Amino acid sequence: MLGAVVYWDLEGAYDVYLGSTVPTQGSGGLLECSFAYLTVRDRLPTILTRVIDTIHRNKNKFFEEFGEEGVQAEKRTIGFLSKLRNELLTDKPILVLCDGLEDTDSWNQYLQRQQRLLGERDPVSWFKSPWLYIECYMYRRIQEAIWLNPPISDFDVFNESKTQSFFESQQAVISLCTYLQGFNRNMDDLSETQLMEQFHKLLQVSLWGNRCDLSISAGMENSQKASPIDSLSDLKSFILVDDSNMVWSALTSAQRPGEDGKTTSGRVDIVLDNAGFELVTDLVLANFLVSAGLAREVRFHGKSIPWFVSDVTAHDFQWTIRQTLAANHKWMSKSGVQWQSYVREGVWSYHDHPFWTMPHEYCDMAGDAPDLYATLQGADLILFKGDLNYRKLTGDREWDHMVPFDRALRGFGPAPLCSLRTLKANIQVGLQPGQGENLNTQDPSWMTSGKYAVVQFSSPHREQ
Ligand SMILES: O=P(O)(O)OC[C@H]1O[C@](O)(CO)[C@@H](O)[C@@H]1O
Ligand SMILES: [Mn+2]
């Protein structure tokens, strides 16, 4: 457990934010040696250095595309990012954004809010702010640096890492697609029980796919080598909370008899996390849900800017489907063809919204992004992938491990939802009495190693 740090009164209770203080008297800061502190001190500057290096290595490409103007833009962007790195390392004040994008005002208002909470004596700075805010802000500032420097404003600084991670997982992708096509061919012969077993397997594949993010590894290679299906039984004991039966019930209870006598099923929304292997696991799950008649429509929600190194953007989504389709492997390519036709027919659709790349907790969504909240209300099930989504769902607070998931959501519940997350931050709710203490003794890094996972379900209609 992190030491107790403060502090503001929310819903009548004092909330402790992960490794961070929001002091009222202008003292304190990120709790030294906490996972949050080490992320800001070590991991974020490393990511920034890699970003600078990537832009520098692409100098010739910019020259070929844009001539001397491209080279000048490269230099200016590197200047912006080096300054940003220096601001971070020397705990300088957080600056307002000035790129005039759709979300710029919201970011600047958020900064004012942080300043009000901190008091006027000290400016909000890198080490004196909530971890979630600082981490999100860094990625937004990277985008500002790129955006303010045309003609290279479309450059995705993480694209190389994302594509590399996809190719490094190739064998695992092939085995997963082969598995998918195997039961797609025999779908009609599957009993209800067999269908449910397949569902559990693919939900777990998608869960463990979340191990492959490039933010926890500071952009270093982190791909899936072995066939994920084969390791599921060995991994089972590392799932600390498994509500997958409730997820199954949410899907089956959304099924209704249609006008033509055939059963129609519900809409599933997947709030995506990482590109590369994790995205493939999500597409395989979504394919299964549609072909098994468990969903009539799947909506994918991704990021509108490059985010936390490996998160999916619209380009990554389309690129992954195209790569799968073009693969020199029968079942992989067949999967890609299927996915592309789902997109063309509108059975699958990709969406993004600026709220996903804001630092807000999800309990703020209804007020701060009512359009997105209303869209999500149309789903019969929402799957939230990954660690960052979990942090936002639970407000990134140092909750007692036994606090129910429903309570940690603090009213957020546009539809039945499920978090599929491997643990990579010091936060975990919904555990049994003694479970957290046992884990602390057995494996002190259980919350941050990515070795453990949860499938946590909540329904707005369920008794709290
Ligand atoms: O891709 P995910 O699962 O959201 O993980 C993002 C990572 O970034 C972090 O925010 C820390 O940098 C952790 O929460 C997690 O390790
Ligand atoms: Mn991610």
Automatic annotation (TrEMBL):
Catalysed reaction, written as an equation: beta-D-fructose 6-phosphate = dihydroxyacetone + D-glyceraldehyde 3-phosphate; beta-D-fructose 1-phosphate + H2O = D-fructose + phosphate; L-glutamyl-[protein] + S-adenosyl-L-methionine = [protein]-L-glutamate 5-O-methyl ester + S-adenosyl-L-homocysteine
The EC number(s) this enzyme carries: 2.1.1.-, 3.1.3.-
Keywords: Hydrolase, Manganese, Metal-binding, Methyltransferase, Nickel, Transferase
Pfam families the UniProt entry points to: ARMT1-like_dom
Damage-control phosphatase ARMT1-like metal-binding domain span: 39-439
InterPro entries tied to this protein: ARMT-1-like_metal-bd_sf, ARMT1, ARMT1-like_metal-bd
Family the entry assigns: Belongs to the damage-control phosphatase family. Sugar phosphate phosphatase III subfamily.
Domain remark text: Subfamily III proteins have a conserved RTxK motif about 40-50 residues from the C-terminus; the threonine may be replaced by serine or cysteine.
PANTHER family for this protein: DAMAGE-CONTROL PHOSPHATASE ARMT1
Function of the molecule: Metal-dependent phosphatase that shows phosphatase activity against several substrates, including fructose-1-phosphate and fructose-6-phosphate. Its preference for fructose-1-phosphate, a strong glycating agent that causes DNA damage rather than a canonical yeast metabolite, suggests a damage-control function in hexose phosphate metabolism. Has also been shown to have O-methyltransferase activity that methylates glutamate residues of target proteins to form gamma-glutamyl methyl ester residues. Possibly methylates PCNA, suggesting it is involved in the DNA damage response.
Name listed for the protein in its UniProt record: Sugar phosphate phosphatase
